[in-house]
Amino acid sequence: MDRQLLACIRTFGCQMNERDTETIQGLLAQEGYRFTTDIEEAQLILFNTCCVRENPERKVYGQVEMLRGAKADNPELIIGICGCMPQQKEELTEMLERLTHVDLIFGTHNIHRLPELLHRIKTTGERVVEILDESGEPVEGLPAHRESDFKAWVTVMHGCNNFCSYCIVPYVRGREHSRLPKEILREAKSLADEGIKEITLLGQNVNSYGQDLRLGMDFADLLSELNQVPGIERIRFTTSHPKDISDKLILQLARLEKVCEHLHLPVQAGSDHVLKRMNRGYNREYYLQLVDKVRYHVPDISLTTDIMVGFPGETDADFADTLSLVEEIRYDSAFTFIYSPRKGTPATKMPDQVPEEVKKERIYQLIEVQNKISLELNQRLCGEELEVLVEGTSKHDAHFLSGKTRTAKTVAFPGSQDLVGQLVSVRITEAKTWSLVGEIV
Ligand code: SAH
Ligand code: SF4
Ligand code: F3S
Predict the structure, then answer these.
(1) pLDDT digits (tens, 9 = 90+) for 73-114
(2) Quick one: which ligand is closest to 91's CA?
(3) What is the DSSP track for 16-69?
């Protein structure tokens, strides 16, 4: 055998991309690769990219540029770009022109072709570019190289049909395609056999799972089936689109013991004008009522969200509506974003783009309001005993373990390393804005 082949993969963006990286690593492992985080010792460097905002795109250009010298010194080095960025035609053209030292470009719909594309580069020494416009049926049976022995992501659907007016995802990930329930169940069972305790179901809009399959099975039914898989102790899912949450799903959230008490329910904005122009398909009142209903059925649920500031035309009054919604709902935490215009999306051409300084001022205010709420909600947990899945040792202190509650809160507590991967009971002793501290009971 040749000297050991080492690959370094840098992943940007959402859990979909993280999960795709696991598949890419599974395929590469079959080709004899091992993995490193040290880019300098790798013979294959892959960037699994995200284009949802401008920032992650800029980072990729920066990091790939830095490899020019390495490629000149070592022509055998293979540099590749995959994921969402090259799915945009204009971006692809720019990449091809600017990043002349890149050997391989592929997209989100043809990951399974990676081994063949690599062979082509190795045999011809030429640049290989292959992007498919549409996904078609999900490809099943691909290997995955997972980092964790006790938790795993399980994709339930690919793509998105919603076309929120600011969002590039439907253009780069294609239309919704659900995986067959039997494939998902098979995967969950085999994960459980390998010792996986927690699964997180992934989709851009899991609430519309199954609609395209016409098997009479929806996301709530899928949860019931997965709840019965022995060995799986916790089930999470993301992301839920508010417009597609059914009453049936809310009841299952309350009823199914393995489904965790956490709902990530992106609201984006608190103003009806803005929500309408975003094409979100709901208004403020609907969202507030939905949250009431969820809390009525699952009183201790932890609620998290995504919020964007500076959408075109967002006035001070619109932004005040977002702040008041955040104060009314009291989310456990929120991902906050500054609107970033994306080529080819309708919002880019809307009038009244908000100036950068205004966007920044708004996001600071929003973060301040949310942080205060997050801390207050965490403080209320002091003294409680919570179930924690131990994920590893703390970054700051090796005698401290770190894990997640069912409500998706991070807890640090003293303990020995052999508890990693176990479910333990922890009493909360201290609350911070983004995490908790406790002791094993
Ligand atoms: N499918 C998920 C979201 C995927 S993108 C959902 O609908 O909830 C994750 C988050 O990125 C979005 O919720 C949104 O808040 C943010 N986002 C998407 N496009 C953006 C843009 N153009 N500028 C800023 N933030 C954006
Ligand atoms: Fe983007 Fe909207 Fe689809 Fe989420 S639901 S991926 S925000 S288009
Ligand atoms: Fe980014 Fe693609 Fe996810 S654009 S957010 S990595 S689907």
Answers:
(1) 999 999 999 999 999 999 999 999 999 999 999 999 999 999
(2) 3
(3) HHHHHHHHHHHHHHHTTEEE-S-GGG-SEEEEEE--SSHHHHHHHHHHHHTTHH
Query: Cα angle at 434 between 433 and 439, to 5 degrees?
Result: 95
Which helix (DSSP H) or strand (DSSP E) does residue 169 occupy?
A: helix 169-173
Nearest CA to ligand 3 atom 1: 50
The tokens describing 78, both together, are: 């293979």
Taking the C-alpha atoms of residue 354 and residue 357, their distance in angstroms, rounded to an integer, is 8
List phi, psi (to 5°) of 190.
-70, -30
Place of tokens 């995955």: 144
Q: Which ligand is nearest to the CA of 158?
A: 3
| Structural contact between residues 14 and 53, judged by C-beta atoms closer than 8 angstroms | no
Does ligand 1 come within 6 angstroms of the Cβ of 359? Answer: no
239 lines ligand 1 (CB under 6 A): yes
Among 51, 108, 158, 164, which residue has the most ligand 2 atoms within 8 Å of its CB, making it the best to mutate? Answer: 164
Distance CA 165, CA 40 (A): 40
The CA-based diameter of the chain, rounded to the nearest angstrom, is 66
Q: What is the pTM of this model?
A: 0.96
Would the CA dihedral through 396, 400, 403, 408 be positive or negative? negative
Residues in the chain: 441
Task: Give tens-digit pLDDT for 164-208.
Answer: 999 999 999 999 999 999 999 999 999 999 999 999 999 999 999
Domains of the chain: 3-130 (3.40.50.12160), 151-379 (3.80.30.20), 385-440 (2.40.50.140)
Residue nearest (by alpha carbon) to ligand 1 atom 10: 306
The string of DSSP letters for 100-139 reads: TT--EEE-SS-GGGHHHHHHHHHHH-S-EEE--S---SPP
- CA angle at 71 for the pair 69 and 73, rounded to the nearest 5°: 70
